[in-house]
Amino acid sequence: MMASGRETLSAVPAPGDFLIHRVSHWTGVLLVDQDRDHPQLTCQTYQAALAHATRAAAHSNVDVWQTQDGARFERLVSYRGNA
After folding, report:
1. Which of 31, 34, 52, 83 is the most buried (most CB within 10 A)?
2. SS3 of residue 75 by DSSP
3. pTM higher than 0.85
4. Average pLDDT for residues 26-35, to the nearest whole number?
């Protein structure tokens, strides 16, 4: 079940989570624990990146995060079960 929440805690993405990295010249969807300089998917808009990451995360039981600087992370949505 989707639990939304804009957390600004010291939490960081876990391996397998999706990370939307927004920089001035591109917005990319990255899979955490892979190269953060080379996105899996480059999108023309933030909304397209969010839609892709959200769809993929829903099927993978992981979270979707965003960052603009690679140091601070904001969890946008969580599909993790309460195990």
Report:
1. 31
2. strand
3. no
4. 65
